[in-house]
Amino acid sequence: MNPLTDKIVARYRAGGFVHIAGVLSPEEAGRFRNAARAAFDRERGLDPDNQMFKQIVNIWQRDDVLSELTFHRRLAELATGLAGIPLRIWHDQLLIKRPHNRTPTEFHQDAPYWPHAGCRHSLSAWVALVDVPVERGCMTFIPGQHERRDIRPIDIADAHDLFDAAPDLAYQPRVTIPLHAGDVTFHNGYTPHTANANDTNEFRLAHVNIYVDRDLRYDGKRHVCTDPLGLEPGVRLPDDVFPPVPR
């Protein structure tokens, strides 16, 4: 397995994303793929009527096999090396696009949706559990825009919303990264990105680990992961719900 080199770290920090091939072995990818497909059939997801994808959050709390992927030591070590600070899991999620779903995930940043204060760094590990060519809904990034903090939360169903909020981004280069099963892209929480529709006959199965600054504070805004907890603004996230990694 390739080490995390200074060149890879520099590429991530300059562009806001990086592709690392073969993080999972074919055997691992197959085992987690089978568990993800079973979870798709079993789990309701956040919005069962959503045609864009089935989003299944915090699957680590209900599935022993996928919990191994959420806390996969190699993923946590790569994320920590890229971020350069101690991290915790904010949440995991399965993002599964049905065959021929006809609905892309439009350009957005992730971090503006999160109720975090004082977060020095956040990043997602987007793990392909199947081959994800362009036609199956791979990721496209706008490089070098991850220092932007002036963009509001975006409607991911609206193809124009990011560019209404930040018109200059419409003229920036874009990088599309097809993935093999077991490949991972890491992207900064403020890197604008999109994923096109799944136009193939197969499910697009992706598992995402979201890593955040271990020392961040809850800012009081509503979020599905913190609403049930009764947290007071200004407190650190509890370790039992948002576990530090690696562990």
Structure write-up:
The protein is an alpha+beta fold. It has one domain: q2cbj1_9rhob like domain (Jelly Rolls). It is built from five helices and 13 strands. It has helices at 6-15, 26-42, 64-70, 73-83, 161-165; strands spanning 17-20, 54-57, 87-97, 105-108, 116-117, 122-128, 139-141, 175-177, 184-188, 193-195, 204-213, 217-218, 244-245. Strands 1, 2, 3, 6, 9, 11 and 13 form a seven-stranded antiparallel beta sheet that branches. A four-stranded antiparallel beta sheet has the order 4-10-7-8, with no helix packed on it. A two-stranded antiparallel sheet has the order 5-12. It starts with 5 loop residues before the first helix and ends with a strand. The relative contact order is 0.24. The model has no long low-confidence stretch (mean pLDDT 97).
Beta-strand residue percentage: 15-25%
CATH homologous group name: q2cbj1_9rhob like domain
Task: Compute the separation of the termini in Å.
Answer: 20 Å
- Write the CATH fold name: Jelly Rolls
By DSSP, the count of extended strands is: 13
Number of helices: 5
For the biggest sheet, the summary is: 7 strands, antiparallel
Chart the SSEs and their pairings.
Elements: H1 6-15, E1 17-20, H2 26-42, E2 54-57, H3 64-70, H4 73-83, E3 87-97, E4 105-108, E5 116-117, E6 122-128, E7 139-141, H5 161-165, E8 175-177, E9 184-188, E10 193-195, E11 204-213, E12 217-218, E13 244-245
Antiparallel strand pairs: 1-9, 2-3, 3-11, 3-13, 4-10, 5-12, 6-9, 6-11, 7-8, 7-10
